[in-house]
Write a structure and sequence with these properties.
The complex is a heterodimer of chains A (681) and B (115). Chain A is α/β, with parallel strands linked by helices. In chain B, helix 4 packs antiparallel against helix 6 (89-102).
C-alpha cells in the first residue's frame, strides 16, 4: 500500500483512521502532589551527614486490601491466553481419557487426595472465576497433581520433583513458588526454548533475593535489611515512572522495582483530566475518575489496580520480583556515593539504579499566593485528580455558575473548551496576557483561528489582559484588571505554566539545565552512572533536535521506557540506547480543531503552513504546518490540523532526515489534506 | 517572505505528480515502513517470544509476570495437538491462580471503587 499512489487510483488508502481515539485514550503528562509548601533546599544547604548515616527502620507500608470476588480479565494477552484457556478446557475432558496419566495418578493417589482436600479450601476463589474458565479451575483444582504428571510424560525424571511438591500439605496456590520451580524442568526438556528455565536461574544472581530455600529461612532478618534496599528505585509515580517500571521488568524478568511517589493515588494518566473525563464522563466521573470511551467500554485514568503492586514489605521475598509502590512519600535527596535515597521522614533506601521521574507542578501566581485565605479557597491550580474533582463537583452541583480560567496554555485552553462542552449553561471565561490561545506553539494565523473557534462555542476569551488584583466579594471573587475593569467569578482555575520538580536533583548536587529547568541527562537519559531521569523533569540530548525537555504524555511514556531499558542494560554492562523516537502530542481545545504535533513546535521558529480548501459540507479545514530550523531551515517540527493517517510517522521521517525542502507544498502532499476521490469499483 | 507563511493547495495541485525525488520516494513507501515503530513487536528475530513487546508490558511487569512467561514459553514450544491434550496446563493454571490471588489485573466490567 502506498501513501499516495493508490489515493490517485481512487482507492482510499489512507483510511482516515481516527488517531484521535488512540491519542485520546492514551493521554499523559507530568504529575505532582496537591499544592503543599514545596521543600526547596538551596544547593549545598542540606546536611551532608544524611548521606550514609541514617539507619532508621523500614518505611511503614500502606495496608494492602485485597479486592473482592471477581476474577481479573486478561488484558492484552487475551489472544495468547484465550486459545490456551480453550485448550485447557479440552484438556480437562481429554485428560480423563488418557491412560498414561491415570497410571501416574494412581501411584500418587494419596498425595493427590490430600492436595485435593486442601484445594476446596481455596475453591471460593476459583469459583468466582468468571465464565471465562470455570471448568479448568474447578475441575483442575482437584487433579492439580495431574498436570505435572502429564508434563512428566515428556520426561519421567521430572515427574518426581513435580509430584513430590504435590504431596506437600499446602495446596498448589500457596506453594506456587515451589511448584513453579520444578515446572520449568519439563518445559526445558520438552522444548528448545531455554528462556523460561534459564530466566529464574540466571536472573536470581541479579536480584536481591537469595536462593528460595535459604531465603525463606532468613526471610525475617532479610526483610529488615532489604526493606532498605531495592535494585531499581524510581522516584515518582506518574507516567514516566510507570512505563520505566514496565520496561525494567520486561528486560529483566525477575527485577524488583520500587516506585516512591509523592501523590496518594495509584499511577494515573493525566490528559483525561482536561479531556476525556469531561468529554465522555458522567455524574460518577469525579468519584471513580472514569469515563465511557468511544468504544463503549468504561475506562478510568489509573494504569493499574492496587493488586498489581507488590506490597513493599513483600518485595524482598518476592521470588520473581515485581513492582512495589510507596505512596504519599517524598524523596528529598539522592546520595550518589552511598547509592541511597532519603525520604522526607528520614528513611534511607539503598538502590542499584535510580530514576528521577518527578515531573512538573503548576506554576504559582504571586498575586494569588499572597491573597487572603478566602480568595485562595476559590482558586484551583489545575494539575491533579483532586483539581478535576473540585471543579467538576462544583459545576455539577451548580455552586459554580461562572468559571474563569487563567492562562493561554494548552491545558487552560483545553479546560475552557472541555468545560463549556460539558456545561453549556456555565459562563466560561478565559483570561490571559497573550494575544491568542496557544500562541507559544501556533503561528499567529492559526492561533487566531483557534481563539475564534473557542469563542464561537461560547467561551468568553479575554486576551491581552493583565490581572492587577483579586478580592473576595460576597459569594464570588472579583478580579481587577490592569485597565481598571472588574471581573466577577465563582471559581478561578489557573493553568498558566509549569515548574519542574527538580529540587530533589538540585539538593543532590545534580546538574539542572538553566534554559529549560530540567535535570540534565545525556542522550541515554543518564545523569550519572547510577542515576537516570525521564519524563517532563528530564532535559535530555536529542541527537536530532538538541537539548530538550518535553511535557507531553508520549514523551513520558517513551523516555520512561527508554530510561528503564537503559538502567538494565547499564547494569549488565551492555550498550545503551540513545533517544531516537520522537514523541508527539495531541490537543483539542476547539470544535473541529484536532491538533497533533511532533518535534519543535515553537512559534518563534519560522513556519510554513499549507492549508487545504475547507471541506464543502462541514467546512472543516485541514492543514500541515512545518516548523523550520533556525540553522539551516530544515524541518524540525510538524503540526497537523485535522490530519490523520500515518502522518506522524511521515513527520518523524522528515525530521530525522533533516531535509531542507524548497517546495513545502510538495512536501504537504505526503499528508492526507484531501480525501481520495471515491472509488468506482 | 513572512515569518509565518501561509500556502494554499488546491485538490488539483495536491493530486498532481510529485517532482522532488525525496518526496516521491517517501510517497511510494508503504505506511508501515515509513518509520520504525517504538514497539519491538512480539517476536524476536530468532523466532522466540519477545517479552519486551509493548503488548505484554504490563503482564510481564505484574507480580504474575513469571507465570505468564512460563505459560507463553511453554505454549510456544509445544505443538497445538499437545496443548489440546493438556500440555502447558500447569503453567497456565499457575498464572491464573497468581492473578486471582494477587488481583493484579483490571476487571473488564464493573470495578471496585478506587481511591
Amino acid at each position: 500500500m502506498l501513501l499516495r499512489a493508490i489515493g490517485r487510483s481512487a482507492k482510499n488508502l489512507v483510511s482516515v483512521r481516527n488517531i484521535a481515539l488512540s491519542r485520546a485514550s492514551l493521554g499523559g503528562g507530568g504529575h505532582h502532589h496537591e499544592p503543599t509548601p514545596v521543600y526547596t533546599p538551596k544547593p549545598g544547604s542540606l546536611d551532608w551527614y544524611l548521606c550514609g548515616n541514617n539507619k532508621k527502620s523500614a518505611h511503614e507500608p500502606e495496608p494492602y486490601i485485597p479486592k473482592g470476588d471477581d476474577y481479573g480479565s486478561f488484558v492484552g494477552a487475551a489472544v495468547f491466553v484465550g486459545l490456551t484457556i480453550a485448550a485447557v478446557l479440552f484438556k480437562t475432558d481429554a485428560f480423563k481419557k488418557d491412560t498414561h496419566v491415570h497410571h501416574h495418578v494412581q501411584k500418587h493417589e494419596t498425595s493427590h487426595e490430600s492436595s485435593s482436600h486442601a484445594e476446596p479450601a481455596h475453591e471460593p476463589e476459583p469459583e468466582e472465576v468468571e465464565a471465562v474458565a470455570p471448568e479448568p479451575v474447578a475441575s483442575t483444582s482437584s487433579p492439580s497433581s495431574e498436570p505435572t504428571p502429564v508434563a512428566a510424560q515428556t520426561s519421567e525424571e521430572s515427574a518426581q520433583p513435580s509430584t513430590s511438591s504435590q504431596s506437600e500439605p499446602a495446596p498448589v496456590q500457596q506453594e506456587t513458588p515451589e511448584v513453579s520451580t520444578p515446572t520449568p524442568e519439563p518445559v526445558s526438556q520438552s522444548s528448545e526454548s531455554s528462556a523460561s528455565s534459564s530466566s529464574p536461574s540466571s536472573s536470581s544472581p541479579s536480584t536481591e533475593s537469595t536462593p528460595q530455600k535459604s531465603e525463606e529461612a532468613s526471610n525475617e532478618s532479610d526483610e529488615k535489611k532489604k526493606g532498605l534496599y531495592c535494585e531499581y528505585v524510581i522516584i515518582g509515580s506518574g507516567t514516566a515512572a510507570y512505563y520505566a517500571s514496565l520496561a525494567i521488568r520486561a528486560k529483566q524478568a525477575e527485577a524488583k522495582v520500587l516506585m516512591i511517589g509523592e501523590e496518594n493515588e495509584l499511577p494515573y494518566n493525566r490528559p483525561p483530566l482536561s479531556k476525556e473525563l469531561w468529554w465522555y464522563g458522567d455524574e460518577n466521573s469525579s468519584k471513580k475518575l472514569d469515563y465511557t470511551a468511544l468504544s463503549g467500554k468504561k475506562r478510568d485514568i489509573f494504569y493499574e489496580v492496587e493488586g498489581f503492586f507488590v506490597k513493599p514489605e513483600d518485595l524482598p521475598s518476592a521470588t520473581h520480583g515485581g513492582v512495589s509502590l510507596i505512596r504519599g512519600s517524598k524523596v528529598v535527596k539522592i546520595c550518589e556515593e552511598d547509592k541511597t535515597v532519603i525520604l522526607e521522614d528520614g528513611t534511607t533506601i539503598g538502590f542499584g539504579k535510580v530514576l528521577i521521574a518527578t515531573g512538573t507542578r503548576p506554576k504559582k501566581m504571586d498575586l494569588f499566593e499572597k491573597s487572603s485565605n478566602e480568595v485562595q479557597n476559590k482558586i484551583t491550580y489545575y494539575h491533579y485528580p483532586a483539581d478535576f474533582k473540585k471543579v467538576e463537583n462544583s459545576l455539577a452541583d451548580s455552586t459554580v455558575k461562572t468559571i474563569t480560567i487563567i492562562g493561554n496554555s494548552l491545558i487552560a485552553s483545553e479546560l475552557a473548551y472541555s468545560i463549556k462542552r460539558k456545561y453549556e449553561n456555565v459562563n466560561v471565561h478565559q483570561i490571559f496576557e497573550e494575544k491568542y490561545n496557544a500562541s507559544d506553539i501556533l503561528p499567529e494565523h492559526l492561533a487566531k483561528k483557534s481563539t475564534e473557534a473557542i469563542q464561537k462555542m461560547g467561551v468568553n476569551v479575554h486576551s491581552e489582559e493583565k490581572i492587577g488584583g483579586v478580592r473576595k466579594c460576597c459569594k464570588n471573587v472579583v478580579l481587577t484588571m490592569k485597565d481598571g475593569s472588574e471581573h466577577r467569578t465563582d471559581l478561578i482555575v489557573i493553568a498558566d505554566g509549569e515548574d519542574v520538580n527538580s529540587e530533589l536533583a538540585e539538593a543532590s548536587g545534580l546538574k539542572i539545565n538553566s534554559v529549560n529547568g530540567g535535570v540534565t541527562t545525556d542522550k541515554y537519559l543518564k545523569v550519572s552512572p547510577n542515576i537516570y531521569a525521564a519524563g517532563s523533569v528530564a532535559s535530555f540530548d536529542d541527537s536530532v533536535l538538541g537539548t530538550r525537555r518535553l511535557s507531553s504524555w508520549e514523551n513520558a511514556q517513551i523516555s520512561g521506557r527508554l530510561a528503564g531499558e537503559n538502567m538494565v542494560l547499564n547494569k549488565n554492562e551492555k550498550d545503551e540506547k540513545a533517544f531516537w523516537y520522537q514523541p508527539s502530542f495531541f490537543t483539542k481545545f476547539a470544535p473541529h480543531l484536532h491538533l497533533n504535533a511532533i518535534g519543535q513546535i515553537d512559534s518563534k521558529l519560522e513556519t510554513v503552513a499549507v492549508y487545504a480548501e475547507p471541506e464543502k459540507d462541514s467546512q472543516i479545514e485541514r492543514a500541515v504546518v512545518f516548523y523550520k530550523s533556525k540553522n539551516g531551515g530544515h524541518i524540525v517540527g510538524v503540526l497537523l490540523v485535522n490530519v490523520f493517517g500515518p502522518s506522524l510517522d511521515v513527520a518523524r521521517r522528515i525530521i530525522d532526515d533533516r531535509k531542507n525542502i524548497e517546495d513545502l507544498k510538495e512536501l504537504a502532499k505526503l499528508f492526507p489534506l484531501y480525501e481520495a476521490p471515491k472509488a468506482d469499483e | 517572505m513572512s515569518f509565518h507563511q501561509i500556502l494554499k493547495i488546491s485538490p488539483t495541485e495536491f493530486w498532481n505528480d510529485i517532482k522532488n525525488e525525496y518526496i516521491q520516494k517517501l510517497s511510494n513507501t508503504p505506511p508501515d515502513e515509513v518509520y520504525p515503530s517504538n514497539n519491538p513487536g512480539p517476536t524476536l528475530p530468532n523466532g522466540n517470544v519477545n517479552f519486551e513487546c509493548h503488548c505484554v508490558s504490563h503482564l510481564v511487569a505484574s507480580p504474575c509476570g513469571y507465570h505468564f512467561r512460563e505459560a507463553i514459553n511453554c505454549q510456544k514450544s509445544t505443538n497445538e495437538e499437545d496443548i489440546e491434550k493438556g500440555a502447558c496446563g500447569q503453567q497456565l493454571l499457575s498464572f491464573m491462580e497468581c492473578a486471582n490471588r494477587t488481583q493484579c489485573f483490571k476487571l473488564s466490567e464493573e470495578k471496585d471503587e478506587k481511591k
